Amino acid sequence: MTDLESRAHLSDILRPVAPPRVLQDVYTDDQLARLLDVVRSEGPWKLIIAQHFANAEELIATLSGNFPEGFTPTLDMFLTPTFRGFYANYSAALYPEIHDCFYNAQFLEHAKSYWGAQYAKPQMMLFNVNGPCGNMDPGHLDSPSFRGVRYENSPTWLCAVMGKSGLFTDYLIKMAQVITWFSHDPGSGFTYWPEGPAKAPGRLQPPIYNRGVVVQNEMMMHRGEANGPLDQQRPAGLAFDTVFTGDPSDKDNWLLKTGDR
Ligand SMILES: [Fe+2]
User: Fold this and answer.
1) How far is the C-alpha of 144 from the C-alpha of 176, rounded, in Å?
2) How far is the CA of 141 from the centre of ligand 1 (A)?
3) Largest CB tally within 10 Å, which of 32, 84, 92, 260?
4) What spacing in Å lies between the alpha carbon of 260 and ligand 1's midpoint?
5) What pLDDT, in 10s, does the model give residues 21-40?
6) Which of the 8 DSSP states describes residue 209?
């Protein structure tokens, strides 16, 4: 296979079972308040990249975009102030106050209808938080799971490479995600490649506040977009071990901590 043929082949594999479905008014005000309270009080939360990757090679294995010849990406390139925490895992809500957000009858109907499936169960729920944030992501796939080889028991890079090889699709766990944004930024949308990365992308137009998509992000290339003023997109002192938490003295304030700072 030539390079071009193998790219076309990969592009054919990297397609979701169905294009994204857009949702409006995903959470009630009451649900959002409870979800935010967990973020505020149950941290501190680590950066995404600090949770999933030990080094740049591991991260790059999950990226399917091609970098220019001779260009070596470094971990620092991906050091963006995006923090992550889990609300639920292994089908269990980790905080009882958000049980209805996780065991969400509407979300299960969305997932079933997206796949044409008769049954579905919730598996995991997480949040990402960022302030102004750059983004150099050329597009990525989320970590897929296979029978016996799952994101819970295997390294991210392994699941990612298994996914985009196309060799294990018979064993792929059929998943859908309901992703919701709470952003007022007029320039920050969501880019996705529903026909494979060699075809034209689609875009969920900003601002995206309490709107969402039903997707299969293990098989559909996608990326969040940069947001906020350019000069604020990299907070001073941001490091691999910076954490995010609510300010106990003010409900409307948030803290970034790196060591003692
Ligand atoms: Fe993703």
Assistant:
1) 11
2) 6
3) 84
4) 31
5) 999 999 999 999 999 999 99
6) E
Place of tokens 């709107």: 211
- What is the Å distance from ligand 1's center to 34 Cα? 24
User: b/e map of 10-25 (b: 16 or more CB within 10 Å)?
Assistant: bbeebbbbbbbeebee
- Residue ranges covered by each domain of the chain: 3-66+83-226
pLDDT of residue 56: 64
Burial class (CB in 10 A: 0-12, 13-18, 19+), 242: buried
* Residue with tokens 């028991």, as numbered in its chain: 153
Residues 118, 111: Cα–Cα separation, whole Å: 10
Between 87 and 137, residue with greater pLDDT: 87
Distance 143 CA to ligand 1 centre (A): 8
Mean pLDDT along residues 187-192 = 96
Instruction: Place 185 in a pLDDT band, splitting at 50, 70 and 90.
Output: very high
pLDDT-derived band of residue 62, with 50, 70 and 90 as boundaries?
A: low
- Sign for the CA dihedral angle at 67, 71, 73, 76 comes to negative
- If you average pLDDT over every residue of the chain, what do you get? 90
